[in-house]
Design a protein that fits this description.
Two copies of one chain form a homodimer. By secondary structure, the first copy, chain A, is of the alpha/beta class. Chain A is 44% helix and 18% strand. The first copy, chain A, is globular, with a radius of gyration of 24 Å.
């Protein structure tokens, strides 16, 4: 098998996914030249300054792209493809990052001439924040990245794209468009719709002001881009409806147990859900084995620096840090995640500075 | 109105809420002596070391408590109260932190003799992590703390308890038990149950491994203490069933729009949800006006210290910091939240160290 490496990659659409992809490729594969463009020309200077792309992608460079990744919303995909088509040369590999794969694969199949290879793509990473400024070079770290290759796609082309995706830190998962669309209905589209339903069932501003962390986290994605999501749900309508039907039935089971005050059944249902949740892999592989330290520190300029410097100078790498709660101009609680074998030493160091701290299991 | 201050407070039950409450009172009201106990005697030394309480609460001290806060799960409340009752003296104020107020107020009304004042309480703060080690002195900062005073409770007693709650940083909200129970059904109990339903509608381990941030956040609370939640749902059964019925109807509206491929209606429903979500107050008041900086830094021991020290030395207070993504032993992206007026200076400082950074709207 000949390995076909990409020397040039073009990114069409510099929203949060496209821009993050540009940053990630530039970062992980310095040998690949990254061109990018957006229908909004005003993004050009910002994209260059942020290091999202090496150069703006002009039409005459399209023929020089080994790989073209369409990062535009689903409903514009056809128009964008029609626009690009005249400039493409045989041998180019086309991929996309659309959230529904069936319709995109049909579009590629119907529109692309022979000789242009296509592989559907969908990184399961994102943000409720959109746009260039929300870009993150490490968005794809440990994220699943689904590829749906066409039947006619040469094996070495799939291998090259897989290699690139692994290079930016993602896990390649290969499946059929149908499998993918059913899966994202369950793990993404139904949750999204449910987040909106949860907002609808709230009564008024009084309810909003009483929202705790749970409700807040559960409805965060309800504030996502409406047009994007309307299209995702409609493009994946059959799979979403099926998954919603299934969701309704599970909801009915809970309601039945509650109506009958069936404590045993309710316990069973909650336990099953909890067990499954605990089996969900943590989002960052490197945190699989980690220890949490909690410390109370004064919330004054420099204190965070003191704490992190003390640990850093002792060779202790902070995997994660979170300001759990804070009182303005007063003390705050922080959570610091370190490797388990470094936790006792870190704890001693913090205590030696007069900082109240303890270890917490995760 | 005479202000009745509390000199001594007893906390019964040192789970995450009780222990956090102890820490918070000790922290904010150094004049109040905090006693605490748990049926698990082995917690004694850890609770003292963590600064959760001043002393273990022995039965003979009960008569000396001006304020007693029951922080035990709902189903044990009656037993605990029976246990305490013989030692209580008239004038003592009793409160609790139970998630359902109707049944607790009935218990207090039925069991407590005249002269012992009672006010139901419920801080809308918590954690899916339970137990003493999850305690956080600042858990109640800006959290809503509902009080449901009894009809017979003197005004000055309510004023004293309100004052204490404000001192630990929470917002006092006074309502009737019925209003409270209806409200928490919507903002807490239905979301909790829905998180479990979402776990049930997933198909297998394959689904779990593909979970992105949205699903992860939406199902976090599905891993909470099952026995605690079974009881909360059963204690608040009528209100939860009503709220669930309402939730089902909103879900039906979404399903109808999707079935009919009614793009306009689907857009409208998602927009309404999004608008409402954006009206939800941020969890920390002090962050209402803040700027986010995103920086790419090498993930090596000490780098975080360098960044935070640079900003600290320049008098820039970091309100929040989050490691957005990280590649083990490689670079990572961090988000730093500062006051908007300090953002340009902070950005310049980071750039002067050769760190790629930009500002992001929040």
């Amino acid at each position: 098998m000949t390995r076909q490496a990409f020397h040039t990659a073009g990114i069409v659409g510099l929203g949060v996914i496209g821009a993050s992809l540009g940053m990630a490729i530039k970062n992980s594969c310095p040998d690949i030249r990254v061109w990018g463009k957006d229908k909004d020309e005003s993004m050009r200077s910002q994209a260059l300054e942020m290091g999202v792309i090496d150069d703006w992608l002009d039409p005459e460079q399209l023929a020089d792209c080994d790989l073209l990744i369409l990062c535009t919303p689903l409903e514009f995909m056809q128009d964008v493809l029609e626009d690009l088509l005249p400039q493409l040369r045989p041998g180019t590999v086309i991929s996309d990052v659309g959230s529904v794969k069936g319709p995109v694969m049909k579009l590629f199949r119907d529109m692309l001439p022979g000789g242009i290879h296509y592989i559907g793509g969908h990184p399961l990473a994102g943000s409720e924040k959109g746009g260039l400024l929300a870009a993150d070079a490490f968005l794809f770290e440990n994220a699943a990245y689904v590829l749906t290759p066409s039947d006619s796609c040469p094996h070495e082309v799939l291998a090259s794209l897989s290699e690139l995706i692994k290079a930016i830190g993602a896990r390649v998962v290969i499946m059929s468009p149908r499998e993918h669309d059913d899966l994202v209905a369950r793990v993404s589209h139904v949750p999204h719709l449910i987040a909106s339903v949860l907002m609808h069932q709230l009564q008024d501003e009084g309810d909003l002001s009483m929202a705790g962390g749970g409700l807040r986290d559960m409805t965060r994605i309800a504030a996502s881009d409406v047009s994007l999501w309307t299209n995702i749900l409609l493009f994946n309508q059959p799979a979403v409806l099926e998954a919603l039907h299934n969701t309704q039935q599970h909801l009915e089971s809970f309601i039945r147990a509650l109506k009958q005050q069936d404590k045993e059944e309710l316990t069973f249902l909650l336990e099953q859900a909890g067990e499954r949740r605990r089996q969900m892999p943590r989002s960052r592989a490197c945190l699989d084995d980690a220890a949490d330290l909690v410390a109370i520190i004064p919330d004054r300029p420099g204190t965070l620096g003191l704490v992190t410097t003390i640990l850093g100078e002792a060779g202790i790498n902070i995997h994660d840090i979170q300001i759990m709660s804070v009182r303005d101009e007063d003390e705050g609680t922080i959570r610091i995640t370190v490797a388990p074998e470094q936790a006792p030493k870190a704890l001693l160091l913090l205590k030696s500075q007069g900082i109240t701290a303890w270890a917490r299991m995760i």
